[in-house]
Structures are given as structure tokens and as C-alpha cells.
Amino acid sequence: MFADQETERLLAQIGQMLAADPLYPIENSLLQAEVDPGMISPSIYKDGGDHVMYRWPDLDRWSDVLLELWHAQEGPARWSEIEYFVRDGRFEVAYVYPDDPGRSEDMMERREQALRRYYDDKPVRYPPWDDDAPSYTL
Question: pLDDT (tens digit, 9 = 90+) per residue, 35-84?
């Protein structure tokens, strides 16, 4: 399979994964992810009307597809971030490269900027931690 066909297949798979959420429709869904071979950090956001809801990603499933997509790139320049947004039944993809002008060094700041681009000033709601989630005291 050619790289562009593989990329199309993986982007379609991402859309299917976003659509599989039974609690929120796919419309106005955002996947924002940092990707490199040593670290994958996906964040999924769904439009909740007057707010944006963060959805916990299944790291095993998302890591595999995102790393495959990252490896499907041709050439020496590799993107480090992807923004995948579903609007009007179609997906839009923006790749962010490490040397893009104006790119913040802070990952959380870049995530906030992506949220503002797609959802304006809607507040983001994060679900509570599970009772059995690991916690650490520093």
C-alpha cells in the first residue's frame, strides 16, 4: 500500500474511533495529539452544546493508530502534533511541525490554543478521576 493510501486508511480509522463514542455524537469532535516514537499524548474533546467535554482516550488503541500514521509519512520532516476535527460530516486535519513559527514550547498551551481554534471560549469539562486511578504524592 502506498503511503498516501495508508494515510487515508488511518485517517478514516481515526474518524471511526471518534464515532464509536456512545455518549457524544461525532460532530464537532476534536482529536489533538502529540506524537513521537517515545511519547504519544492523545486528547479527545466532544461538543456538549454550551461546553466541551474531555473524553478519556484508550491509550492502547489510540497509540497504535497514531504511531502508524506518524510512520506513514514520507520524507525527513515529521509532524509532531495532529489536530483532527469533524465538522459538517467531514474531517479536517492539521499537522503541526516542531519548527512551525509561533509554535509554543509548552504542550498545555498548544492544547489550549487548539481548543480555542475549534471551540472558541466554551468551557472545558474534565471527568473526575476513577477511584482506582493511580495517584502520586511529590
Answer: 988 899 999 999 999 999 999 999 989 999 999 999 998 777 889 999 99
Q: What is the spatial distance between Cα 89 and Cα 3, in angstroms, rounded to a whole number?
A: 25
Please, are residues 122 and 51 in contact by the beta-carbon 8 Å criterion? yes
Per-residue model confidence (pLDDT) at position 133: 64
**Hey, what CATH topology would domain 3-125 get?**
3.30.500
The 3-state secondary structure of the chain reads: CCHHHHHHHHHHHHHHHHHCCCCCCCCCCEEEEEEECCEEEEEEEEECCCCEEEECCCHHHHHHHHHHHHHCCCCCCCCCEEEEEEECCEEEEEEECCCCCCCCCCHHHHHHHHHHHHHCCCCEECCCCCCCCCCCCC
